[in-house]
Specification:
mainly alpha
Length: 107
Amino acid sequence: MNLPQQLNQLEEEGYTVFPAFLDTETTARIRQHMDSLLPPVAPRNDTSAKRLHTLRHPIPGAIMAEILANPDLITLASQLLNANELRLLEQVLIRTDPADQKPGAHG
């Protein structure tokens, strides 16, 4: 999928995926940081466990400033918002813990 298609999907569906946007090392560091701030990941078969965890601004840790200074992210945000001057309003990271799914179930 190219950028215009991704932007169209974002507009129509409220999400899109940018494959390989962040390298695996950065992605692993973000996940490690989130896991340090959130409760432990619940086992898949724990049906009573909370599966969706949200962290909102301000999120502690230097990694957040590092992510926001990523030139690729700034370029993408400028294109998405059609703006040259950007200001951060809120940081949000969401972790969804894995769960056993019944065949055909959508979580």
